[in-house]
TrEMBL record:
EC number: 1.10.3.11
Entry keyword annotation includes Protein biosynthesis: no
Oligomeric form and interacting partners: Homodimer; disulfide-linked.
Enzyme class: oxidoreductase
Name of the protein this chain belongs to: Ubiquinol oxidase
One Gene Ontology cellular component: mitochondrial inner membrane
Binding note for cofactor: Binds 2 iron ions per subunit.
Keyword Zinc: no
Cofactor(s) annotated in UniProt: Fe cation
């Protein structure tokens, strides 16, 4: 009797509509049934589980192929990357990461703005008194233009040589970038090589920028000085861009005279340090690594190497102007790449 009642109850529960019998497979596949829903859900979970397993397995295998094996090392690298992301730094991007770089003493290389192979020992065998005497009309225009530009600078900064140098470097880094950019576009447009002058001028711009990074460490600029930099750079960039388009020989001659003024300014800076008017503080770490200065280097050592760089920029730009004044193009004369 009990078996009969139980059988009737089960058949009623699994009946369809008018009491028709459904097989187990039909019951599970029926969309409206609870068991069918649960079965579909379980199948979906199993599908995505195995799919994710297959994808992760494939990714690990591809990493093994690219990296030559070692999933454990990859996982450690991922843990390190995740830890760096939590700290707010990211060392790699899609598998591209910075290699471990050391100083000669074994400590980690701290700079991202330049690498050890960009550092060098400055050539101090320069003539700080060298001056290109203006001969032609454009030479005189360039010379007078630079002298006029110096007047407001001297009025604003007077004997504050650190701030004066900072402002000077924000301007001095512009010509190399403008000249290199325009020569680059010319080379693309005319299908011509540049004789190395693109690289030489961009090297000059980068070197001047490193001067600025050093001076900022020594002189913390005030807000109004930063505002003045924005205004001066905006005016000078557009003005020099126009001059270089119209007359590259005038542009390079102007830069040559600007660098002459820079050499003069840094010489005056050194006199103030020697007289004790300016404290000869320790050199910033960035300067010691960039110019390969000794650990006991001072502000005087930094100013000496910067002045040497400016003297080389002076000579190179006067040389470039001379090439143009001879009716030639820069690409016809080998560029002094790596001159600083």
């Amino acid at each position: 009797m009990k078996r009969f009642v139980a059988g009737s109850l089960v058949s009623g529960l699994i009946s369809c509509g008018g009491g028709g019998y459904m097989s187990a497979a039909e019951m599970m596949a029926r969309p409206g049934s609870m068991q069918g829903v649960m079965m579909n859900k379980q199948q979906s979970q199993q599908y995505y589980y195995w799919r994710s397993r297959m994808m992760s397995s494939g990714a690990e295998k591809s990493k093994e192929v690219v990296n030559g094996g070692g999933v454990g090392a990859i996982k450690e690298e991922e843990k390190k990357k995740n830890g760096d992301e939590e700290k707010g730094t990211v060392d790699s991007y899609w598998g591209l990461s910075r290699p471990s770089i050391k100083r000669p003493d074994g400590t980690d290389w701290p700079w991202n703005c330049f690498m050890p192979w960009d550092s060098y020992e400055a050539d101090l065998s320069i003539d700080v008194t060298k001056h290109y005497v203006p001969k032609k009309f454009l030479d005189k225009v360039a010379y007078r233009t630079v002298k006029l530009l110096r007047i407001p600078s001297d009025m604003i900064f007077k004997r504050r040589y650190g701030c004066h140098a900072m402002m000077l470097e924000t301007v001095a880094a512009v010509p190399g970038m403008v000249g290199g950019m325009l020569l680059h576009l010319r080379s693309l447009r005319k299908f011509q090589q540049s004789g190395g002058w693109i690289k030489a001028l961009l090297e000059e711009a980068e070197n001047e920028r490193m001067h600025l990074m050093t001076m900022v460490e020594l002189v913390q600029p005030k807000w109004y000085e930063r505002l003045l930099v924005l205004a001066v750079q905006g005016v000078f960039f557009n003005g020099f861009f126009g001059v270089y388009l119209l007359s590259p020989k005038l542009a390079h001659r102007i830069v040559g005279y600007l660098e002459e003024e820079a050499v003069y300014s840094y010489t005056e800076y050194l006199k103030e340090i020697d007289s004790g008017a300016i404290e000869n503080v320790p050199a910033p770490a960035i300067a010691m690594d960039y110019w390969k200065l000794p650990k006991d280097a001072t502000l005087k050592d930094v100013i000496i190497v910067i002045r040497a760089d400016e003297a080389h920029h002076r000579d190179v730009n006067h040389f470039a102007a001379d090439i143009h004044f001879q009716g030639k193009e820069l690409r016809e004369a080998p560029a002094p790449v790596g001159y600083h």
